[in-house]
Amino acid sequence: MSTATLRPLAATELHLWRLRLDLPARAQSATETALAPDERERAAHFYFAADARRFVAAHGQLRQLISAYVGRRPAELVFAANDFGKPGLAAPADVLQFNLAHSGAWALVALTAAVPVGVDVEACRPITDRAAIAERFFAPGEAQRLSALPAGEQAAAFFRCWTRKEAYLKARGLGLSLPLDAFEVTLETGQPRLLWVQDDPAEAAAWQLLEPAMPPGYAAAIAVRGREAALVDCGEWPIRGDT
């Protein structure tokens, strides 16, 4: 996952960037400078300082990244959320679609020129009530396939399922108004796919699910509407201010 330079976002491309969240002091300061006042206020309300630093690093680098695409200063970017909380650019409108996810020491940003996109990343951790969570929140077929796997494979499959479902929910921009058990995804590694969606029989065929490479101990997924979008793995966003 080498550091890469930004390239223009073509209409048929999906760009993926990885952001490190544990930054050197000068880089951390640069990300804080990029934030809007409301984001600084949100950071100030975290109980743990480490969580606040990673929030600042994720959202500050997101602004740096988008500013490089649209040609505006990071702090000048205006974001607006839809009725279910999904953020997007308020101005300039309709320039690009993006989605941010962060967990542990990493964040992911997915961008397209026009089509809806969602991304999720999870630091894989022990979950003692994994089966109960799957029975309560996953679609019946997902929970059944998960429980049928050998015990040693269930943890990784759980996080593959979780990230794929979260990525699709975020791409739809409907929040939890679309329940997690109202659609089904695959659990197998290397074969991400949306199988069915309860509210629209044709919906599953309209989406791609993708599984980007991550460091050991992390699971991630991208959902993008349309079969035309080609994934461009842009690598790691260059750390700004680390001189």
Task: Report on the architecture of this protein.
It is a single chain. The protein has helices spanning 25-34, 37-44, 49-70, 130-137, 140-148, 151-172; strands at residues 13-20, 78-81, 87-91, 97-103, 106-112, 117-123, 183-185, 194-197, 207-210, 218-225, 230-236. 33% of the residues lie in helices and 26% in strands. The longest helix has 22 residues, at 49-70. Helix 1 crosses helix 3 (49-70) and helix 2 packs antiparallel against helix 3. It starts with 12 loop residues before the first strand and ends in a 7-residue tail after the last strand. The chain has a four-stranded mixed beta sheet. A three-stranded antiparallel beta sheet has the order 6-10-9. A two-stranded antiparallel sheet has the order 2-3. The chain is α+β, with helices and mostly antiparallel strands and 243 residues long. The chain is globular, with a radius of gyration of 18 Å.
